[in-house]
What we know:
The complex is a heterodimer.
Chain A: H1 2-16, H2 18-29, E1 38-40, H3 45-58, E2 61-68, H4 85-98, E3 101-112, E4 117-120, E5 123-126, E6 142-145, H5 146-154, H6 159-165, H7 172-191, H8 208-232, H9 245-249, E7 250-255, E8 258-263, H10 268-281, E9 285-291, E10 296-302, H11 306-331, H12 335-344, E11 347-350, H13 354-364, H14 372-382, E12 386-388, H15 389-395, H16 397-403, H17 410-417, H18 419-422, E13 438-442, E14 445-447, H19 458-475, H20 490-493, E15 498-502, E16 507-510, E17 516-518, E18 538-542, H21 550-561, E19 566-573, E20 576-581, H22 584-600, H23 611-614, E21 620-623, H24 624-631, H25 640-647, H26 663-680, H27 693-714
Parallel strand pairs in A: 1-5, 2-11, 4-13, 11-12
Antiparallel strand pairs in A: 2-3, 3-4, 3-5, 7-8, 8-10, 9-10, 13-14, 15-16, 16-17, 18-20, 18-21, 19-20
Chain B: H1 2-18, E1 29-31, H2 36-49, E2 52-59, H3 76-89, E3 92-103, E4 107-110, E5 113-116, E6 131-134, H4 136-144, H5 149-155, H6 162-172, H7 190-215, H8 220-230, E7 232-235, E8 238-244, H9 248-261, E9 265-271, E10 277-284, H10 288-310, H11 313-322, E11 326-328, H12 331-343, H13 350-360, E12 364-366, H14 367-374, H15 383-393, E13 399-401, H16 416-431, H17 448-452, E14 481-483, E15 487-491, H18 499-509, E16 519-525, E17 528-533, H19 538-548, H20 552-558, E18 562-565, H21 566-574, H22 582-595, E19 609-611
Helix pairs in contact in B: 2-11, 3-12, 7-9, 14-16, 15-16, 18-20, 19-20, 21-22
Amino acid sequence: MKKHWMVRALSKTLTLIPIPFHSSRGTFSSVSSSFALKNVTRSNFELSLADLRRHVRDSDFVSIDLEMTGVTSAPWRESFEFDRFDVRYLKVKDSAEKFAVVQFGVCPFRWDSTKQSFIAHPHNFYIFPRQEVGGDDPSYEFLCQTASIDFLAKYQFDFNLCVKEGISYLSRALEDEARLHLHSAHEDELSESPSTTKEIKEVPLVRMADILFVERMRNKISEWHDDLLQIRNGRSSRIPEDSNDSMNQFQTIFFRMRPAIKLNGFTSRQLRLIKSVIQKSFKDLAYIRVNGTSCFQQFIVYTNSRKDLELLMKEVKGDLCKEAEIKIEAAIGFRHVIDLLSSEKKLIVGHNCFLDIAHVCRKFVGPLPSNLEEYATLVQKNFPYIIDTKILLNANNVLQLKMKKSSTSLSKAFAILCPHIASGVSSSGLANSSSVAVEVQVDDMRSSNWNSGAKHEAGYDAFMTGCIFAQACNHLDIDFSSHSILMEEEKLQKYINLLYLSWSSGDIVNIKTGRTTTESSAFNIFKIQKAKIVFPNIAIVWGFPSKLKAREIKESLCKVFGLTSVTSIYHLDKTAVFVQFSKSELVSDFLELKSRLEKKNDAISVFHPLSELLEGGNTRAATYEVYKEICGSPISKILFADQAEAGGINLNTTLFESKRRNARHCILLRLVLAYCKSILKGRRNQPLEPSSLSVLRCWEYFQDNVKKYKTSFMR
Amino acid sequence: MMLRRRFLCTHTSNFSINQKPAPRQWPIKQVTKSNFSDSLHELDNKISDSDFVAVSLQTTGSYSSAWHRLLPFDTAETAYLKAKYAAERFQMLQFAVCPFSVRASNKLVAYPFNFHLFPRDEHKIGMPCYSFSCQPSYLTSMAREDFDFNVCIYDGISYLSRAQELAAKGQIGNPVSSGYVAQSPSSRSVADNVFVERIKSRVGHWISACKHSDTRTNDVLVNSLRKLILGGEDYGSRPSLNIDVCSERQVQLVFEMVKSEYENVVPLIIPAKGGGTQAVRVVLTSSKEDRHLLEKELQNMEEEQSKHVRGFREVIDLISSSQKPVIAHKSLNDFTFIHSKFLAPLPPTIDEFRSSLHSAFPNILDVNHLMKEVGPLNKYTNLPGAISYLKRNFFAPIEIEIPQKASMEESKNHGHNVVRISELFAKLCFILKMAPETEPHNRDGSSMLKRCSNVFNLGSNGFQDSNEGDDISVWTHNPTKTSINNLVFVWGFRSGTSARRLKNLLLKSHEMMSEDDVFDVRLVDKNCAVVVFWKTRLSEWFLTAIGSGDGGLRELATEGLMAAGYEAYKRVCKSEILGADLADSLAEFDRGVSETHTEESAEVYWNNELMINLDDL
């Protein structure tokens, strides 16, 4: 046995060895042309932004790609076949609200007609939602999906760089809020200027030490004050620099052209006492606190007159205000890049980028609207031209042919459409007319056959997307050299501003109009045409016994509503199903019947075909609209049943809640069941003693209905 | 210009003086996936040699909004609910464990370990966690301490909680032998007998065929053909046969039959995906010795497997089974995390939590609680603050000895807090004249440590960080106990209104409230404040008065001022989403209550007395 294992192990190592050798050789052949793309972090952001501004301004289009900390906050928030457009939007909205963007790839492409080549400038921004202004804003908190973090790790994502050096940002909405807050605070302070404050807050002097301290301070300050006046009056001053400790705490300087004392090394309580002394005893001195680089700094400033004092206060506040403005300005950070793309109105190219765009809007513009139409308007306002390469590849016959019906995933499409770039082998020798040349420029380095190969790095993914787009345009016979603007190109009009709401279902939204369509199947060779989904016919059922499978649920429903009543059953997760009925009335029939069965609180329901579904008393059912409501909830529980329970959705007529069966109820069930058995076995006379009135009532009810339920029970 | 420069100079020099000296570096063993199993063994030894175990954890966040922090007016119940909320959302990335003993002559002998965790889904079963929340400020401050996120995410140790391990058993899908528990032979039906006979003869045929084949040639083709016909395959080097079963009853029957009929055959359960049993596999051994060998192998394999599944939880199990006193700093926070990640989902009430936790950790000591014995109540809730307070006010020389060497370079040496907790504990023992070396063996329950154990620290963090400080004076030196019934939450005033202004507004509103010492106001956050009435019954009056628009309160009410009692606050804390803004959540719940009358039972475990520590406000 041992030997057997040894051989196994040996063969494993044998096959393993050549692989790294191979791959190292592979990278060697193209080593001349693989330099790192432009990684941008906090330290080089300012400089890179200046360069990027130039590149974007000159570019024909800009491709983007994002890496996030996750996609779905719960398994049931993944995209389902049974999701309507509005539900799909709510799911994407939830994702964009909860997860953080950690990497942002931006790659401007410019056509150089002398070289007959595109010049690409791939940038890879590390971003991190560090909060730079304002208090603890909970909107900065973000979710990580464990699987996504693991995925990023698999592609060697540098989390340290992201957290430590990632560029922070401030959305437009939060910027406005911060400014508003600043101005209102500023006005508040002005209205409470020292002349109008009604009372000077007194610090009670209870401790002996306090009283002594206050006295000492009063003397010190008045000494300083008198000296100052003496100098003013032209008399010689004493030299106050007796170098003892307390004098170091009293440093005379000029504050805004006025003589002042800088207060060093006092405790906050002492400072408060000093403040009250000044306010009480010195009319021409002002106590001022300004923001230092790391902490507050306190001064006592001499002012000539009341007017001068007010002037000084105004100046100080103006300074504070300006400082805060600068801070807000600096906090904008990475949003400058988004503002740049938006203001330049460039054609934005992404690959399956609906979620990416949603993230861009949520992170850099503001909260997402609650419905798809308003969202489309928001996007349109900020990014008037977006093109999705996935749409382009799937919708265009010429490109479909080129793609040879292969998958349209980013790396696949890149490999098929741009083999000359993907392989990293220079194709300069064989001038292939059908392939577009792309030259990459990073700082001073240029290469016409660049390929870093770092898949799932936002910058590189953006580069691939751009290359695919350029190549696709070429296949569509778009002439880059003609001086027309790319987004006005007629051949692209059909595809501009169309985004996949969900690629798998072919649901497309037109950002320009807010209208939604489902991709016509003619282009969709990979997708099997499914039965049409009629949303009003759908009920959602959850919390049923976990052992029930879709087939059993269908069977029990068919027993009640007829063999053809249920079109399909689809599991959201193990706790919930969609049931599509053949008619919309059946949904309300079902919900009504369910509530009736439960409300009766009668044992009879155990013989009802639905009893299997309702067993346990936690089964809930609702219309499709309730599902939409649940999807809009900010809560994300792992299981759908828990989610619905936690959401506290209002239990209106669309939703019927069953009550837990109590112990008495169970006893009843058993009694009636026994009786029922005896009937069916033909032993009608076996004694059944209704021990209480309720049992009797139950029994009578059973008698009435026994014929009706006999058939189903016999089965 | 000159002056300006001087200003700058003094500033920088000041700065350098203010800078703290570099913190002490203790050698702390850093543990990741690669050195986990070795370290586990080592830790096991150290724990059994030590008297105490200190723990400390580094999480990705602790509160989503200012009011989610522990506030002075929180009861044990609301404090638990807040801690629960945080523990369910956030994730821990580091878990430091420090077995230590305090020897005579004030010597602290400590063996600190720092484990890096990451909740990786190692077995592709969607566990231990689907997603977790992060607070950027927490990550940033970790980054400032040079925490290596890459090490943590690439090489962090994963885990499953006890509850998850149970749930996962079926999902991982390895054959299990110990899953079968021998039941008393029950009466068999006809169908059972038919089934057993059928299986018996099938197994019998298969065994004889296997034995028979030993004498025949080892022709590969013949062998594979035979396997095809018999439906058997090799299990390791031994032949085996899969028997399909339809129910757990049949599993039991197969096991009973095999055990009674065939001595050298070992039955195994093949679990189905998603729980239950898919089939029973019977493995043929050549002799009795061989059977024992196989059984031993299987046992080892299972042990190995479950060890792998438990991952870091092994450490928790070690600490738990050692029954040593566990020393923590913010114990409520830490142990809600520990319970939710390593034991089971958190129960809805603090009493259930206490009893559930007690079964795993019977003896937890919170240094914060011990601090109350020596210092002003609740004053020093952070570790460095507490240590420096002790340094300033007490003479407690403690010599720390860490006999191990750090495993990584200095900059990557994390988890110092756990040593600080040990140090603080040793100092406190010294000051309180407790002899910690004898404590664990002293079970008479009268000692100080016994008294303090398992008291969750509900010490306040203070209200909002009051660097403003101006309106503190009202509340100092007034540590009055008050019932939560005397608290009223108010909101709907202009955002950013100060507590003083609010109090003035209320003072003017009604003659019942015109005296200064009748009530006090504190801000909870910028949109919500709490009013404390110093006379009983006044709060009820206030709530009805503001509801009916009595006197001057009408004016406030029309301006949008709303009020709710403590019950509403409790209900908000109980909800699934605490909400970023307390005022919004209160308004939401207030509305909800007026719409549907809830028949909630009265809380029995809370005595309605809480400490409002006014010194700290």
